[in-house]
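Appendix B. Raw example, untouched.
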Amino acid sequence: MKKKSFIMKGIMATIGLIFLIGSEISNATPSTQIWIPSTDFQKWKSLHLGIDNYLRSSTINGVRGAGITDIGLTTGLLPFSKLQGEIGVDYLYMGDNVYDSHPIYFNAKIGFGEDALFKFSPAIVVGAYNFGLKKSLTDYNILYGEIARTIPVLGRITVGYYTGNEKLLLDENLKKSSNGILVSWDRTMSEISDKLWMAVDYQGGKNYLGALNIGASWSFSKNVSVIVGYDIYNNSKAYYNSFNQNANSFTAQLDINF
């Protein structure tokens, strides 16, 4: 327990430093795969706009829960070639009057890309997201760590772990489900086109975040791409708002880099 506490304090100190350094920068959402955070970073002095939509594909007990729309801005945080960082802010619409009255969430991450520490070293990232401003309602305060490595022909494999506010990350019985694994595979399908990218990612846990996600992206230009995918949630009854249901969803995500 002491070791875990020490590690968590270290992560919190790192995230705190990120927010301190970036407090005067225009902000946004973490770079992701389809659903989970990725080990990618926005470049220094760049600005990324993401518009993500999640539309429920089915009903539970005759009720089709509200979809989710996430509009985020992200900017590169550090001007270094090896140590990288980004910081961001999201406007999250969930179709619930209570949550939608407090729609602002912050995120940040810091780490090293592949080969930055030594030849063949993996990418290493620690970060935070869903830091809402309303205590006991939107302060999910998710902390995570990931490592990733690109394997020739196979693609990039990412593994990690997350933990968050145990009072808010709950299962359908309102029991805490505040942590879990993060795993993903992604690859540019250059055999077909360098513009085509595919990914599968997974977030563990019986809370509303736990899901298996499958998708593909097409780059229309150097700065504009679109992801389409499908999200299969671990727990269809996970508690996340007044609807108390979590039906599977289609996702469409527009990404624009400035």
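End of appendix B.
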